[in-house]
Amino acid sequence: MAITLLAEDTATVRMAVRETLIRLGHEIIEATNGAEVIAQFESDEPDTVLLDIAMPTRNGVSALKAIRSIDPCAEGVA
Fold first, then answer.
1. What is the pLDDT of residue 77?
2. Taking residues 13-38, what's their average pLDDT?
């Protein structure tokens, strides 16, 4: 089962995406801001990260840069 880190600060959007991914067989880890994304990435080592661009604390672009510094093999798709 793929582990997906879902980063979205809007609860209704996060819930809708989470339910869809669960139906597709993903295990979901959630984050509501960029700082949480980085902490969750380091601790849980997800297979996939879905990033909201506009989030509090750190935006998605900043979080992606931090993820790439943690794991240089991480790929980003816009």
1. 61
2. 96
- The residue type of 25 is G
Rounded Cα gap, residues 41 and 36, in angstroms: 8
* 11 domain-assigned: no
Q: pTM to 2 decimals?
A: 0.89
Q: Which strands sit side by side in the sheet containing 27-31, from one edge to the other?
A: 27-31, 3-7, 48-51
Q: What is the CATH number of the domain that holds 57?
A: 3.40.50.2300
Residue 55 domain boundaries: 32-78
User: Per the structure block, which two tokens stand in for 9?
Assistant: 């600060």
Which residues make Cβ contacts (< 8 Å) with residue 39, sequence separation at least 6? Answer: 31
